[in-house]
Structures are given as C-alpha cells and as structure tokens.
C-alpha cells in the first residue's frame, strides 16, 4: 500500500513524458490545501472558544477583553511608539487575521515597565483603558514560569539571581529555595533555585528579558493569569472545583 501511494505521488507531481498532466486533479489538491490553510488562519483568533487561549498574546496592561479589544483597536501603533522598553510589537501570524498589527509584548525585546502607564494614556479608542499608575501596578498581563531544563540553578547547578534582582514588585514575586544538588563531577553544592509566587507576579516580563541565557530563556511569561480574562487562568475550573490546589 505504501509503495503504491509513493508511486502515485511521484507520478502526480512528475508524470512520465508519455502522460498528460491532469491539471484539474492538481488544481483540486492545491486549491483544497490552500482553502484549508486560509480557513485555519482566518479562524485562528487571539482567544478561541472555551480554553483555547494563545499564550504568546500578552496584551498591554489594562487592555479590554479580547473580542472587544480586536474591535476597538485601530492599529495606530501609538502604544508601541511610547513603550519605553520597546516591549510592544505588532502581532503578525500568532493572532490570526483578526489580530494583525495589534500590540503584543515580546519579552525578549522589552518588558512592561512597572512604573509606566503610557500606553493607556495614548490609546485613542480605549482598547487600553486609561487608569492611574497605582491601578496599573495591580494588573496582571500574564505569569512567569521557570524552564528547569534551561534555568541555570536547575539545569547547571549554578546559582543565578538575576531574575529576582530585577523583579519590580514591592514584595518580590520571585523567591529562592536553597537545595543540595549534584554537579557533573559528582560533588554536592548548594544552589538557590528560583520559584514564582503567582499571587505577586504581574507578568511584566523583566525576568525573561534580563535572563542571561542568550537564546531560549530559563524563565518565560505567558498570558495565563491575565486580569482581563477570568477564564485564562492557571488552574482548570474542574481542578479548582474539586478542591485541588
């Protein structure tokens, strides 16, 4: 069966000289593939139904719920222009066609400055609500997580406190646990392994931005836990309802 299939595919894309190309069949295949791809792109939105959330779409603080955000945002880029860390960038494919050119945080390039609410001041349509700086500091745009395969204290038995040093919340959202770990040569050392307190983390992304690992960071932020969407939370409703924590 597999040989016959590959033989058919070979003849389909490169038919023998004596055979005529069946353009109608090829057009149907390519047209169908293009149609499916377009449909998927069109239907993919920043927030889908139920729990289909996009972890990469970290919106500016005080943004309205996603459906309303997409209808209000006029793609003027004013919020991106005033962002002091260059953290806000236009959405390309990750938000689907409906989200094209809307603002999203790219934490490797910048982060949400704790002492800043400029984006809410310049938004002309209230897609980003205008609120005070004190109110903004209480807003969560996401939540940080540690990748134990990348984070130095977990993966390399080396103490690193860069993320905690830069954490801007009055009470640090990143805390350490001293543990004994084994090095590659078999010796035991004490390292400080970082943890995130989800009740304090605002998802600002400075920990990801400042992480010394050059490519894929040892700590990263996703949109889960964002204030604007009560359904996009860390724990599933079923787990919380069962009494699990």
Describe the structure.
The protein has 245 residues and is α+β, with helices and mostly antiparallel strands. The chain is built from ten helices and six strands. The protein has helices spanning 2-13, 23-43, 66-72, 78-82, 118-122, 133-136, 152-155, 162-166, 206-210, 237-241, and strands at residues 88-90, 103-105, 143-146, 174-182, 188-196, 219-222. The chain has a two-stranded antiparallel sheet with strand order 1-2. It has a two-stranded antiparallel ribbon with strand order 3-6. A two-stranded antiparallel sheet has the order 4-5. A hairpin with a 5-residue loop joins strand 4 (174-182) and strand 5 (188-196). It is globular, with a radius of gyration of 24 Å. The N and C termini lie far apart (51 Å).
Provide the low-confidence segments as ranges. 38-52
**Helical content class:** 25-40%
| Elements, N to C (H/E) | HHHHEEHHEHHEEHEH
Into which percentage range does the β-strand content fall? Answer: 5-15%
By DSSP, the count of extended strands is 6
Query: What structural class do the secondary elements suggest?
Result: alpha+beta
The dominant shape is globular
What composes the largest sheet? 2 strands, antiparallel
Spatial strand order of the main sheet = 1-2
Radius of gyration, whole Å: 24 Å
* Contiguous helical run count: 10
> What is the first-to-last residue Cα distance?
51 Å
Let me know the average pLDDT.
84
């Amino acid at each position: 069966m597999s040989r016959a299939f590959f033989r058919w595919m070979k003849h389909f894309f490169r038919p023998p000289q004596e055979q005529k190309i069946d353009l109608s069949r090829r057009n149907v295949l390519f047209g169908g593939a293009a149609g499916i791809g377009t449909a998927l792109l069109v239907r993919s939105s920043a927030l889908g139904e139920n729990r289909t959330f996009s972890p990469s779409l970290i919106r500016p603080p005080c943004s309205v719920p996603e459906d309303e955000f997409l209808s209000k945002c006029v793609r003027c880029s004013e919020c991106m222009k005033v962002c002091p860390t260059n953290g806000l960038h236009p959405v390309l494919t990750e938000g689907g066609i409906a989200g094209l050119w809307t603002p999203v945080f790219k934490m490797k390039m910048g982060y949400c400055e704790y002492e800043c609410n400029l984006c809410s001041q310049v938004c002309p349509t209230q897609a980003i609500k205008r609120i005070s700086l004190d109110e903004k500091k209480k807003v969560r745009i996401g939540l940080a997580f540690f990748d134990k395969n990348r984070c130095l204290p977990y993966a390399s038995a080396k103490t690193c406190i860069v993320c905690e040093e830069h954490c801007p919340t009055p009470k640090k959202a990143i805390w350490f646990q001293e543990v004994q770990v084994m090095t590659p040569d078999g010796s035991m050392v004490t390292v400080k392994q970082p943890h995130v307190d989800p009740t304090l983390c605002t998802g600002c992304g400075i920990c990801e931005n400042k992480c010394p690992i050059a490519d894929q960071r040892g700590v990263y932020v996703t949109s889960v836990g964002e204030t604007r969407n009560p359904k996009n939370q860390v724990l599933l409703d079923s787990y919380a309802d069962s009494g699990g924590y």
